[in-house]
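tool_call: predict_structure(chain=1)
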Amino acid sequence: MEDNPAYSSDVFLEEEGKNINIPHDWAFNNGISKTGSQTDKGGYYSGGVAWYQRLFETPEDLGDQYLYLEFDGVYRNSEVWVNGHYLGKRPYGYISFRYEISDYLHEGENLIAVRVDNSEEPSARWYHPCGIYAPVRLITKSPDHILPLGVFSTSSFSGSGEATVNTEVTIGLQEKNTSQMTLETVLLNKNGEVEGRKEQIITKEGKDTVSYVSDIQVPSPVLWEPDSPYLYTLVTRLKSQNDVLDEVKTQIGIREVEWTSKEGFFLNGQQTKLRGVCEHWEGGPVGGAWTKPLMRWKLGLLKEMGVNAIRTAHNPYPPFFYDLCDEMGLMVMDEVFDGWKKKAPFDYGSQDFVEWWERDLTEWIKRDRNHPSVIIWSVGNETNGPVGADIVAQCHALDSTRLVTSGHSGSQFMDVHGVNGHSEKMSFYDEDHPDKAFIATEAPHTWQTRGYYRTQSWFRDGYPNDRQTPFPLPDLTEEEIFHYEWAAPSQWANHKQHFNSSYDNATVRISARKNWELMRDLPWYSGHFRWTGFDYYGEAGYVHGGWPFRLFMSGALDVAGFKKDLFYFYQSQWTEEPMVHIFPHWTHPTMTEGTKIPVWVYSNADEVELFLNGQSLGKDKPGSQWDEMQCEWMVPYASGRLTAKAYIDGQVVAQQEYHTAGAPVLIAVEVEDNYLDAAKDRTAIVTALIQDEEGAFYPYGENTLYYHLGGDARLLSLENGDPVDTTKTYDVASKKAFMGLSNAFWAWEDGDGSGQELTIGAILGEKQLLTSAEAAIDVKTISLDGNAVDKDLRVFYTTDGTSPDTGSMKYTQPFKVSLGMTVKAIVVEGNTTILEMEETFGQDLGLYWGDGKEADNEALQGMPAVDAEYTGAVPRNAAGNAYLDFRGKEGTVTWYQENDGSAGMFDFEFYYASGDKNSNRPMDLYINGQKVTTMIFKNSGSWNSGWKKIQKAYPLKAGANEIELRTTGQSGPNILMLDVR
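tool_result:
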């Protein structure tokens, strides 16, 4: 949108805009491009400036009432006007705020205008939303009222188990009101019955605000805990005689939290391991535009996995998230800041922290401190500085009932010692630890791509090495047996651009299994927050090599919400309901018969028996040591049925079976009903699965799915979880499947979904015709409430690339295709074409089916230099390598380097090329603003090939480090890759 100041006036410019629904995230809606201003950090999404305008009517009897305009989340640099009056600016994109607007209103229509400025990007280290991404509300109050965030409730316990609910209420007063007022505090149980009541007379004493404290005794409290999150309702009423001037209802939970250095974390007197995940607000399928029903679905999946705690990495969430955690029994490490200084070029730490941190931190704690789910405050992530002491002191002043931690930031100031990746090292367990409670705030770091397997273990660039002391992670087979990829290695931009194995053998320093073993068995290990629960958009360059990679693949669930094998590992360790899960799947079209495949089964049963085509391969028992937590068999590959049966006390309690699938022929359609109620939530998630003619799931399905909705529901996202699918997910009508699956997310305003009929169609077949030279067409219709719909649909198709019509071949059964052929089809309902579909088959389309012999240029490691900040240089490309060329000019190359371990010496590696025979092209190396050396880049014989490597060790501090190369009076070399390890 044009940045036009006229939008801030008192004139509604309806003709220049379009209607949108809140929550709104324009960056997500616009999709990604290789030149997206958020860069690889933000998954190649855009930024920019947008304006919002909204007309509203004031109540006729408004009188002298107060109106607050409250925002739960606007990213970022929001400015607000009412009827042309400027109210203020809030830079931080992850904080709630409000304005009192009574003085600027008039009878009839009033106009709100909001300007959101994301013109300077990237402003975060991961994808961030753009716009008003969380609810907005008008709050009407009487002149004398309980102030916003003016209720603070805590609970304490006596030795006999009796609880006291302590409540502090802050009231705003008007001098002209001389009548006597009272403050009533009432505690209601879950059934609405009164547990206690207190009433106090308000003494004005000429003050603008007054605070009152009351105590209510609860003799036999029902405690809040994850398995039974019991909530009371605290009602605070400001009354004048018999009139209620103001009433605030606050859900609270009575619970007791203790952190100890020797025995970890205690909840209600019981030692409790925090089985946590870190989550970006943007982790999942809708960018930043989460609705409450979809967030309930997300949290429900995590709880199903066995999660009992969430770290809000690395910022506060909108209030409804904490409401859901209260209701669902999820504990929260509530985090407020990523950095206390610059960590991304235009982030809050670099631009706003110094001026705004106290105000934003105050809003955050006052807003969230009544939630029983919030068990600890976290104030930073891999950052540093003496300001940490002030931040902790401010937290204690605002809430003395909770301790403070951080993700490896200002650890000397923290109450609880939070450690990120450093806790993944073997050497960490030999160190002397501070006499503080310990929590692994970000561990383990593992990566996995749904449906993708490798038997050779993989460590992130530069690992394993002795200095980082990683835990052993042996290969599963002597030689790699799987060779498929998203593309041939020769097409990758760099060696990082591969998928990651789902065997729990792709990591930095430690596997998920070993990390859980340590956490489970060491009493002082309070718990961990793995990185992450869901995949998320952004951070696509550091680990995954950049475009076309758009995601960070650290989740136990992918960005579409599909469960990875890792999900079932945690479920086998963290839940009690009997379960069993086999992997890998049993469809391997290029696998030689007899190849021995490691078959793993996760289960929480006593033992598991594996069958191949009805023949038992023996039983195995899940063990307690990390490398025995999976049941494991080496199975010679033969197509057919692979079955796992789980036993408890000799009885089968769970079973799973895979069938070797033939070529894709069918689509199956399912509607999520575990965590969503269509009638109540007016939200639906529709899953499309690709199957063979017998209904067996085809795990490599990548045909395009086409959607037609007969109804007024709006599409929130079409998401398949594919890390390299760069097509839009919003305002589209088609999406290819990834590893056989894709999800469609819908919302509507009225009704139960029964009138919203969704038709999904696809032209199906193996893209490269590996095992079958036939294609099929399938179409299914389902209503968004989950009921199948029988429609009279006709399908017509062509195989010569021409557009079909009702005179073309009518589809009745699968038909022959050949490589290079494009099939087009239409789906007709009555006389209306509702779907137009297309699918091309070809040797170079779809997944790459290799033989393991193609090299992936493993020598070039690190971050592409073009992903850093730079001046004076321009990006160029030669032989598929993107590099920086200073073109005879001076300049700089700057990047941020996280050190998630302790301070120490690290290897710096620079890949460069120089054809200058007369100069060594020196550049000064600065670390955190201090010059440490002058780097000498000798003639390599070429400007764009034969890349040479310089490697030297230099010190980094824990947390955030800024590294810069500066030319020194002449131009620099061409720079390809940068690496620190």
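agent: The chain has a mean pLDDT of 94. Proceeding to next step.
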